[in-house]
Amino acid sequence: AGAAAPRCCLSLWSASTVAAAVYPCFPEMFTIVAHRGDSAAAPENTFEAFDLALQQGFYNFETDCQLTRDGVAVVLHDEQLGRTNNGNGAVAEHCLDQLLKLDAGSWFSDAYAGARIPTLVHLLRRN
Fold first, then answer.
1. What is the pTM for the complete model shown?
2. Which of 33, 35, 42, 91 is catalytic?
């Protein structure tokens, strides 16, 4: 099989540097995206991270989704719980109600204690 095509995704922490260097010359060739929201300043893939990115003028996000046991898409990078929340086990082994009770912010900072794992539908419908 042939090699996969290379992908490019610029994280928020590097976006301002890259934008300053390339935007004036090639604006139609680049889209600067907030990687999992402003994941440098808030817990990744939470409303808090997406809101911070929007406040900074980033209207494009890269995010990840996993399916729960009951078939709901949640905004979470890892297939296993634990790295960015206080759960354990596979996302696919938990129903949505269980995941909505998890703390998705304390791992990042006490200031984000109580942040929740959003569903994809809630993220897309958020104003």
1. 0.76
2. 35
Q: Do residues 31 and 59 make contact, with C-beta atoms less than 8 angstroms apart?
A: no
Beta carbons within 8 Å of 91's beta carbon, 6+ residues apart? 66, 67, 68, 74, 76, 78, 79, 80, 81, 99
Give yes or no: 94 in active site.
no
Return the ∠ at Cα 86 (arms to 91 and 112), rounded to 5°: 115
Q: Which of 30, 51, 77, 98 is catalytic?
A: 77
* Per-residue pLDDT tens listing for the chain (127 residues): 555 444 444 444 444 455 555 555 555 667 788 889 999 999 999 999 999 999 988 888 899 999 999 999 999 999 999 999 999 999 999 999 999 999 999 999 999 999 999 999 999 998 6
The pair of three-digit structure tokens given for residue 63, joined into one six-digit string: 């995010």
122 a catalytic residue: no
